[in-house]
UniProtKB/TrEMBL annotation:
Pfam families: LacI (PF00356), Peripla_BP_1 (PF00532). It comes from the Bacteria. SUPFAM superfamilies: lambda repressor-like DNA-binding domains, Periplasmic binding protein-like I. This is LacI family DNA-binding transcriptional regulator.
């Protein structure tokens, strides 16, 4: 196997000079650098980055787990990677396909120091299974989780739903529809708490909970059309579901579609294209805070986290709402 000594001998320089060229640290004049680079090419030397990382006690790699069905969450992935790269870290994406065994194999990468930290976008295992791995390196997630071992830059959906419902009732709405995500989701439970509070104050509601991740927009629209009395406003938990809901509604009954107003979450490209009023959850800041938590733990520093700022993008699907209904949001813990 070709070594750094072979390169030094071929170039007629010291081992430390070759090392400075390889790491791009320290001064090497242009002529010497060219000699070393030529020697590297001629002897076929391949730097052992694994050994270098071992000496530095870091791989400078963050694992990123998804379950294989991310829809528009690619936007979050892109932002997370961009932040990581700005700190000279690489991100490797692993798809668990919702398989708990496969996900544990990726968690083991942290245990065996093949990655420095781990971000879980969508999980397959219970938190009780995941939490013990935090002793091997920092773990962050986009899930809402109350844990001292796993960081989450979540936005409290109770706050979102309470603010929107207060605004709707202020504008005279007494009957509101909801399409909510999986009952396993803490966000759904928080949203439902806010809804129940308004129900206790006289608000009439229709709720559709998406039990699976297939055809949720279409099935919720079909269920909606079966109602003898339909709410004029439907609050849907994600833009892509809202888009499917509106499309199916228009296919099946254009009159009802024209009478139904929609609000959703995410403020993604879909809400822009379909003119859906949507709540922007400040994904840029969420992605930044998630990475910085991992970075701070790996490097024993305390870079400050940023304040999340929610905003409402008012579009054609629903206009009778105050775009300033969200005051200053909290600093993530």
């Amino acid at each position: 196997m070709t070594t750094i000594f072979d390169v030094a001998k071929k170039a007629g320089v010291s081992k430390s000079t070759v090392s400075r060229v390889l790491t791009n640290k320290g001064y090497v004049n242009k002529k010497t650098r060219q000699k070393v680079e030529k020697a590297i090419s001629e002897v076929g030397y391949i730097p052992n980055y694994l050994a270098r990382n071992f000496r530095n006690s870091q791989t400078r790699t963050i694992g990123f787990i998804i379950n294989g069905s991310i829809k528009l969450l690619g936007e979050f992935i892109e932002k997370f990677i961009k932040v990581a790269e700005s700190f000279a870290y690489e991100v490797v994406i692993y798809s668990s396909d919702s398989d708990p065994v496969k996900e544990k194999q990726y968690l083991d990468l942290l245990k065996y120091k093949q990655i420095d930290g781990l971000f879980i976008l969508t999980r397959a295992n219970d938190w009780q299974v995941i939490e013990p791995y935090s002793k091997y390196g920092p773990i962050a997630t986009w899930h809402r989780v109350e844990s001292t071992k796993i960081y989450s830059a979540y936005v409290d959906h109770y706050y979102i739903y309470a603010a929107i419902l207060q605004n709707l009732r202020k504008n005279g709405h007494k009957y509101v529809g909801f399409v909510l995500n999986s009952a396993r989701s803490q966000n759904m439970l928080s949203a439902n708490d806010a809804i129940k509070k308004q129900e206790a104050m006289g608000l009439k509601t229709w709720k559709y909970i998406c039990a699976t991740q297939e055809n949720y927009g279409e099935s919720s629209a079909q269920s909606f059309l079966k109602l003898s009395e339909k709410p004029k406003v439907v609050f849907i938990y994600a833009d892509y579901v809202a888009g499917m809901f509106m499309k199916k509604l228009r296919e099946l009954d254009e009159t009802v579609a024209n009478q139904t107003q929609v609000i959703s979450l995410d403020n993604s490209i879909i809400s822009e294209l379909l003119d859906i009023t949507s709540i922007d959850l400040d994904i840029d800041t969420q992605a930044y805070n998630e990475f910085v938590y991992i970075y701070n733990n790996l490097n024993a520093v305390s870079l400050p986290l940023k304040k999340i700022r929610l905003k409402l993008a008012v579009r054609k699907s629903f206009t009778q709402i105050d775009p300033e209904c969200f005051p200053e949001y909290r600093i993530i813990k």
